[in-house]
Amino acid sequence: MSKTVNKKPKIVVIGGGATGCGVARDLVLRGYETILVEKGNLGSGTSSRSHGMLQSGARYAVTETSFAAECYRERIIISKIFPKAVNLIGGIFVRLSSDSLDYIDKFISCCDIAKIPTKEIKISELLKKEKELNKNILNAFHVPDAIIYPPKLFNLLAKEIKGYGGKILTNHKVISIKQVNSIAKSIVISHNDNKINIECDGIINAAGPWSSKVAKLINQNVELQLTRGSGIFFEGQLVSQAINRCRIPNNNDIMCPSGEETLWGTTSEIVNNPDTPKTRPDEIHDLLLGAEELFPRIKKYKYVRTWSGVRPLVKPKKFNKNLPLPRSHLVIDHEETGLKNFLTICGGALTTHRLMAEDVVNKLGKKFDINIDCSSHSTPLLN
Q1: Which of 25, 102, 143, 310 is at 20 to 30 A from 351, Cα to Cα?
Q2: Strands, DSSP E only, in 126-223?
Q3: Residues in the chain with pLDDT < 50?
């Protein structure tokens, strides 16, 4: 049952990436007074520095089946509530001779467990459509992957947040967080050398790779595993759908169309610095070599630009170098370490940003004895 809020708690969301914007949207839909603070422009960090995949979850089916299932459910929801930002291009997982045959059975079985539709397709038919693909493909499976356009997504999210009464402060950096009687009560932000104090009833830290730095402003600890990912853009559309290597997620295994260009990537390298790096020459060299394995004639195409971003993954208790780092999300309630009404949301993926927001806002509501049903999965966009 929903409960009417007489006095709306005032919540500050720190971070204007997909997660932070998703949190702000969820809050305003539930009636909270909401202020989103972002040190740059919306989506200028990790969210805009990725392959833009709206994952079916198939990529993670074998290594994280529950997360894969979340991805597919969210892919369906996001496609319905943000249709203008989504292109349902579909995806293909292909196996080369260097990829394990044993993985195929695991892939099909785990996709079935996660309820992700898969269908083996004829290689001859695939090659008619994707002419640049390696002709020595041994297996091919269709999955319902899609792509999402970050600029459109952020325009729509900003319109929603403001349309329901929320405020967005871009190019405002949080420089301090204050508490009263062990309750997070205000932030100080800086803009054009001016300092502004904002009082609030609660704070959600959704600062992505910078979440640890934000938490330290109020003497809290957030342990992240930061990983750097890089990719390259080729001129023109080399493929019509997302092409994935059918293997444990690794470097150099996704190519997908991106507007009038084609993106190839990505990489994964553990780093310590959350600030966005430049793509190194050795990364570009390795990316081009990897692309050539799946697309032998790739050298005849010109790459026009590169990108690099930092992923804020949840730090695992035990690290297995043979498996990719987990992509599931985590909500940290800092009341466990003595600070009330301050929560951090981290991990996850662009595909699951709405679900992450729902989770953290549900937990926030309990602190105010508010049980308002989440409607972010069904509320249509404002016209």
Answers
A1: 102
A2: 139-143, 146-148, 167-169, 173-180, 183-191, 194-199, 202-205
A3: 1-5
* Integer Cα distance of 190 and 288 in angstroms: 42
Spell out the domains of the chain, with CATH numbers in brackets. Answer: 10-45+151-223+328-367 (3.50.50.60), 56-146+225-314 (3.30.9.10)
What pLDDT score was predicted for residue 321? 63
- Looking from the CA of 8 toward its CB, the CA atoms found within 13 Å total 14
What's the CA gap between 236 and 309, in Å, rounded?
Answer: 23
Give the amino acid at 124. S
| Cα separation values, 251 from 64, 144, 184, 350, 383, Å | 17, 22, 41, 19, 40
**Identity at 133, one-letter amino acid code:** L
Radius of gyration from C-alpha coordinates of the chain = 21
* Each residue's pLDDT tens digit, 298-338: 999 999 999 898 999 998 776 666 667 888 999 999 999 99
Please give the structure tokens belonging to residue 323: 């498996």
Residue 236 burial (10 A CB sphere; 0-12, 13-18, 19+): exposed
